């Protein structure tokens, strides 16, 4: 099933400029995302994902409350989350194996969302990339969108803070973090919050 934006199927865009021209609300969503305040995280509940890695968890996980990664310059951080089960998978993709990675990311979330009582949908969040001269980020942005379009599941694109809307490259010298909280850090109900983190608290 092709990707869905606002519950409508989309065709593969020819460029990120084309995508944001068709769906200008994505740019506004990206602006709002970039303006979110930074938060501190207790490293005892953090699972860090390095380049070419991905990890999945659920709100029932007693060890991991936060999935995170950073240094996504030309790379992209990919989050898929099921709104019913709260299962989430975060990947740090560099374009080396996009076509094989994406099915594994989706499978990781769906396999953790088998309970029929937990109705919901798959939501996709993409962050990363910049307008580099070699167009590496641009190519990865389009390949990720295309790869998700090829999945059999309905996948709703919610956040698209990628090449063309993300950041000027100098921002990445700040060692920017991107985190998904499959459950609240203090053990509250599932939040699915996404946040920037500049500092991890050492406790």
UniProtKB/TrEMBL annotation:
GO molecular function list: protein-N-terminal asparagine amidohydrolase activity
Name assigned to this protein: N-terminal asparagine amidohydrolase
One Pfam family from the record: N_Asn_amidohyd
GO cellular component: nucleus
BP GO terms, sorted: ubiquitin-dependent protein catabolic process
